[in-house]
Structure formats: C-alpha cells, structure tokens
Amino acid sequence: MREKCGEVYLVGCGPGDPELITVKGLRLLKTADTIIYDRLINHRILGFAQPKAELINVGKSSKSTGKHQDKINQILVQKAKLGKKVVRLKGGDPFVFGRGGEESQILQKHGIPFQIVPGVTSAIAAPSYAGIPVTHRRISSSVTFVSGNEDISKANSNINWEAISNTGGTIVVLMGRNKLSLITDHLLKGGLSPETPAALIRWGSEPYQTTMTSTITDISLKADASNLLPPVALVIGEVVNLRKDLNWFENLPLFGKRVLVTRTRDQASQLSQLLTQQGAIPIELPAIDVIPMNKKVLQKQLLAIDGFSWIVFTSSNSVNIFFKTLHNLGFDTRKLSGAKIAAIGPVTNLSLEKYGVRNVLIPKVFNTEALGELLIKEAIKGKNILLPRSKMGDDEFVTKLQSTGAQVTEINIYKTVIPEQSKKLSTEIFKEGIDIATFTSSSTVHGLVDLLGGINKLKNVNIACIGPVTETAIKKVGLTSDILAPESTVESLVEAIKTHFTG
Questions:
Q1: Has residue 392 got a pLDDT over 90?
Q2: What global pTM score does this model have?
Q3: Of 3.40.50.10090, 3.30.450.20, 1.10.10.10, 3.40.50.300, which CATH number belongs to 292-416?
Q4: Which end of the chain is more exposed for a tag (fewer CB within 10 A), N or C?
Q5: Among residues 38, 93, 394, 435, which one is catalytic?
C-alpha cells in the first residue's frame, strides 16, 4: 500500500519581528513535522516549533547559485512524499520576491498538495518600522515594488526603469544593496529628480534596525561610506520626509539595547518578549538549568499529604516539579483538598492555576519576608507546613516560620546547574557587548558569576534585579544593583529598566 503523501505549506513569517507572523502561519508552524527555513529568518520564531520537529536550514546568500534552489525543491518534494506535514518558512511573503511561485509549481508538478499562507512583506514592514508610509493621501497614491537582485545590466532586463522613474509614486527596491549605485543611476537616467528623498533600511522590524536617509543622488555614496551591508530595503519618494515625524520604532525606550536574559530556557521567552516590545535586543544566556532531585522523598510526602495544613511554593519551578510528581503517582489536585496553598507571587500563582489550583494566599510584596509575615497572620502555630523548593532556598524563611511554632517539612526538590551550551555562548555574547544584565533569582546571579569566572565582565554593565532577595545576592558577589523592580514580576522588571533609561 502506497504511503499517503504529506502536504506543504508555504508560510510567510514577515520581515524579522516574530510577532508579525499570521495566526494561521503560527498554528501551522506549531504542528509541522518538518520546517524548512531561510537564512534571514529570526531564529526566535523557530522556538514555536514542536520539540520533535525536524528543522532544515536552506539559507541562501547573495552569492548562492541557482542549483541551490533546485536542492530546496528536492527537499520539499522528498519530505512531502514521506507523508510529512511540511512548513516552508519564508521571510516576508512567499509570493513577493520569495520564489514561492517557483516552489509551488514544482509541488504541483509532483502532485503534492500545498497551501500558501501570505506574510507581511518587508517592502511594507521595513518602511513602516522606519516611520515611512509607502502611501499617503496627500503625497503618494501608488507604490512600485522592484527586485534589486536581477542583473540589471543585461540587455533583456524585465525592469523598465524609465517607466518606474516616472510613476510619481513611491518606489521600494528589495535585495538591491549590491547593485545600489547601478539602480540609482538607472532611475536618474530614467528621469527621476536628483533631489528625490531616499532611505535605506537595514534589518527592518528588528531591534538592531538601521535607517539612513539622503537623496537618490547621494544615497549610494552614503551607504558605501558607512559600510552599510545587506539586507536592506531602498525606499524612494517624498514619503521618506515623513520619517522625521513618524519614526516610532527607533524611538522606543530601549531601542537597540542589548539585554542579557539569564532565566532558564523555559522561562526566558516571556521576559524576552516584553523587552522586545520596548525595542530591546534580548540576549538569552540561561545561567541555570533546573535538575529535579529527592524524587523519592517528595513521593513519600505526597502519599501522606493529608497530614499537612499548608503547602508553600516559592517558585514556578517547584510548582512544576511538585505537580508532575503528583500526577505520576496517579493523583490530581483533589489530593490537596485538605491543605491550604500559599505562593510567593503572581508568577508562581499562574503556574498553580495551570494545574487547576485556585484560592491561593499571596503577599502584597512578592518576597519570602512578606510571605512569612502573611503566613504568621494565618495562625500557623502547631500547623504542619510542606515547603518544596530549591536547594538554594532562603534559610531565614524557614527559621521565621519555625519560630512561631509551625512544623516545617522542607524538601529540596530541585537544584540549579550551569548549562553546558551557555558556557560555549558566553564568550561570544560578551565580546559583542551587553548594556543590561537581568536577574530574576539568586540562583541566576550565582550561576552567571560562575559561568563567567567572576564579575569582571559585569562591572560596566547595568544590573537589573527582580526583587530584594536577588539584590542581596548581587551585593554578596561584589556588584551593585542599578535597577530594582518594585514588584517581583518580569513586567515590573521591564518597567523599571524602561524608567531607568527614560526618567
């Protein structure tokens, strides 16, 4: 029996910003068996792929030959014939200078079902992120998209530069950096005014976006003098002048700042996303990895959970390990019906909600000191309290509870270690420079200092802490906290960083 053929989805994921992918594109990405992606794809978007997905990089540079595309076509056909659900992830839009038409024809020729999922083309997105509308009711009522990748010196060129020069609207040229002087020469010879405003936008929609403006006469010389490298979008027309009023992206409070994110890989995405929304470049370097421990001890206590009046959680990691162990024993949250639950803050509470736990006691200030005071008010004298937490947990917290007459059973259910991959990445990351280092726990502080072999690389870096406990850890290693979040949440941390730089 012949195996059922798979299907190929040509998905445009936008110019760079991962949030510009469509809802449909994201849904397909999350469920794909195989993802075949281009060179300029923001690798953060690949984080949405399911863990078992096969990732194939088929990136082409400007020096690649036509044979490379033939190879891509072969891979598409091969994977589909294996019955795979294939996502061909393309920058921008598949049908705007993306060879989506060519790839679709190959699939059709081989009888392979396919779908096209349009994306936001960089021809529109890059100017938008540079504060340049490609059309404007009072300035430009038309826009022309041109590929700058064609050999425009050939006699049978498909591009009518004279006609383009006289459209009277906006001109957007993609992939034209290497032929920029030839392109501008053709436009000038075609009749375009030498004083026509022009802009070059490099890495449009990314936090390291660079925009350069001049006239069509001088833009090539200016780009060469600045050594402006691809990928760039060239925008030509009077709409370029609107940038001085509409430049929103590059004016974001943290635009272009390189911010080190030291959280575990599983926890980093939320903080990275919030930083990106403020224009920052999040650099993920997990300083810790969570390793479960004392599994048998935890199992023993869970089997006798009815003997505890309170269960107290001081981190999301402890919540996840606790409930995974509970479920492995064949129980659900009903097993905890006899105990009250307390959490150190809203992030830990959100983790509890994922497991169906409600009515959680949370202090107004999200630290162990405030949590301890709140528990004491709950008349815990003589009560049995289960405290599953990190091996590096705050000892003063336990002492405080015990001083009231409470019986505290502490289980160190996980420890933190330095990820091997981070050791390899750290040298390159700090070579490129870091503006801000963020810390969301004491363990991330100690983990990064151990990873770097000391604090020297952090001495000229702004230090941002999520709360007083983390700040104390910073002081103990010989550093100073420049930024302290008023609340122990990543939202508060990002807001504090923004305030630090904007006042």
A1: no
A2: 0.80
A3: 3.40.50.10090
A4: N
A5: 38
